[in-house]
Each structure stands twice: as structure tokens, then as C-alpha cells.
Amino acid sequence: MWGIAERVEQMERTETGTDRDRETAPGDSAVAPTHRTMTAFTPADEERQRGVRRMKLTATGLLLCVAVVYVLARWGSHGEAGTWTAYVAAAAEAGMVGALADWFAVTALFRHPLGLPIPHTAIIPTKKDQLGISLGEFVGENFLSQDVVRQRLRAVGIGSRLGAWLAEPEHADRVTAELATALRGALTVLRDSDVQAVVGEAITRRANAQEIAPGIGKMLEKVVADGGHKRVVDLVVARAHDWLVLHDEQVMDAVQGGAPGWTPRFVDKKVGERVYKELLRFVTEMRDMPSHPARGALDRFLGDFASDLQSDTDTRARVERLKGEVLGRGEVQDLIASAWTAVRSMIVSAAEDERSELRLRVRAALLSLGARMATEPKVQDKVDSWVEGAAVHVVTTYRKEITSLITDTVAGWDAEHTTRKIEAHIGRDLQFIRINGTVVGSLAGLLIYTVSRALGA
């Protein structure tokens, strides 16, 4: 009996090996396969397949055992063995029917039973694409729905968990280091010329798009009203006084050089000395007298200029022209470019230094954020809402792409190889159906025969 079962199993293995040989036959190398295969059989798959074969032997052996019992029971019923043989024969007959029916059902999942093209058999290889579509729809409806995503994420409690994780100093240090590495990498990848061009163009466009004269006028008006310009005047007048004291000869020579040629030299000298003394006196008085008339005149001039900057059309137009000329100069563009270079270098240096103010502030901010997320329900709810919103947006926007990944992947699998792969994973459990069918069929047949005899009696 077991020899027959082994022979049947050997025939099945031979048929499977023949199919595998046909898949990899050298003569087929000229024809490109139309489907991608699943991942090649691993040692674990081979072990599963051996387990399936053992269970097939067991199920087939049980079927043959029931068949032998049936034959012996029927033979005994014609002799003088007793009426009990009829009960055994009925149970064995029903067990064979159950075993054969379940064998047909299990086999029909993977191939045509006995090689006959019976309708609705070889379900997995023939309905593989439909199964992939159904699987994609099942995942989309039951795993990628908005309610399911929100419910699962809310149950996880990402805000509180992330907060507790960030509140640990070593984790904050790790995140800070990763952020610093990412920042250095991003700044290294960026080309200075490109960034400088973008920054320069952005600053120039923004400056050209916005009139600056009214803003300057308001600022100057505020400065004059607060007396902030007086310190500048004090500084200028003090420096002018010191300069005149140190350069008296140059000032007098300049005055004498501008005198007519027909005037006597001593007159020119007297005039130069007189002009120098008056100029020095004027600057000294202006320096020492906060209420000097010249200071008042300067205040009125600045106030009028501030008003003109805000309301006078000609003054505003002249400022705009001056602004355009200044921005158009190469020196200004070079200054903008050099500013980016300096900023980039400063950021890179700060990111590399573990004790820099930038990294210390980022670390402190992460620790503070983690503590708040771990203890404050409002912050946790806000973080959870952000995460849920982002996940729902991804799911609702790209659900079709996600499910199509499943259906397209299944559609790209080779049917025969896929069947063998699936059978290796679930075939062993399916063989228990055959065993259970044999046992349950026998018990059902025995019960039915017993009831029939009882009613007939």
C-alpha cells in the first residue's frame, strides 16, 4: 500500500520536474519569457515543498488504506464475518468519496486534476491576474481607507511616543547630528554660482518691485522726531573740528590758492587765516551748542527731506533712479554673491562643530519639543492630526497607484512558478483537508448507514 503511494508521489514529482525542465529548457532560450518570475526558490521553500510531499504521501496513503478496508469489508460481507462488515464498508466507502472529493478540490486550486481540462480547475494559474486585482481591491478598501488609516494612527499615539523618544538626551543628540549631516550635505551639493545667481536675482527683483523712497522717508521722519540723528551730527561735527585743528595749514593754503592772482600775497594769507578761524569757530560752536542755529536748520532740512521722500513725485523718482543705478553696479552684485558664500561657510562650520551655538540651540529645541509632546495632550493631538492628515492625503491621492503596484506585480509573475511557490507555502495545510475529508466522510457514512438501517428496521 505504501509502495503504491510512494509511486504516485514519484509520478507527481516527475511531472513537476518535467514542467520545471520545460521552463528552463535550453531550446526555449531564444524565446523571451512574457512574464517575470517570482523570487527563485530558497532553501526554505525547498524544505516547505518537501513537507508538502510528505503530507501528500500521508493523505494518499490514508486514501489507499480506506480503499483496502472497503475491499476487505465487502469481501467479508459475502462470507460469514457478520453484519458489522456492512457498517465498516459503508464508512470506508464514504471515506473514499470524501477523500477523492477533497483531493479534487485541493488539486483544482493548482492544476487540472489528472491533466484533464475540467472547467473551473487550475484556478491559481488561470485566475492569477484576477486574484491580483481582487487582492489590490481588498487592500485598497480595507487597509487604505481614510477611516482605517486615521483609526490605526490614532491608536498608535505617534505624538506621545515621538515626544518620549525625543525627550531622551541621546536621541536628541542623534537627531541633531543627523540634521547637521543633512544640512552639510545639502549645502555641499548646491553650487555656489547657482545659489548666488538665484539670491542676487531675487534681491534685485524684490528691490525693483518695491518703491523704497516712502519707507526711507518714514524711517527718517521717525529718526528726526526721536532725535536719533543728533548723535550722528555730534560725531560728524566733532570729527570735523579735530580735522580742522590737525590740517590748519592745508585749509589756509586751499583758500589762498583760490584767490585772484592780482591780490598781494600777505592779503591772501590774512584772508586764509580769517576764513580758517571763522570755519573753526563755526564748527566749535556747533559742536558745543546743542541749540546752535545750524543744528536747527539741519533738523528742518531733514524733516523736509523726509516729507519729500514720502509725497514729492520728483524726489521719489530720483531715489528710484539712484536705487536702480546702485543695484546695477557690479560691486553690489559681488557683495550679494559674497554674502551667500559667507553665510554658507558659517552654517557649514556651525553644523560641523558639536558645541556650536546652532547645534546647541537645535538640541535644546528638540528636547523642549519632546518634553512638550510627551506631557501636553494639546501638542500630542496637534502632532497626531498632522501625521494623520499627511497619511490620509497620501492614501487618498495615491491609492490607485498603491493598489496597481499589487495588481501589476501579480500580473508580472510567471503562472507556473507562482503556483509552485504558493503551493510550497500553503500546500501542506491543504493536505490536511484531504485527511479530514477522509475521516469526516467515514464518520458521516457510518452515521448515515446506521440511521438508514435503524429506520429500515
TrEMBL record:
Source organism per UniProt: Streptomyces brasiliensis
Keywords: Membrane, Transmembrane, Transmembrane helix
Pfam families named in the record: DUF445 (PF04286)
InterPro entries in the cross-refs: DUF445 (IPR007383)
Name listed for the protein in its UniProt record: Membrane protein
Chain spans, region Disordered: 1-35
GO annotation, cellular component aspect: plasma membrane
Keyword set includes Transmembrane: yes
Signal peptide region: none
Biased composition (Basic and acidic residues): 1-25
Annotated TM spans: 57-75, 87-110
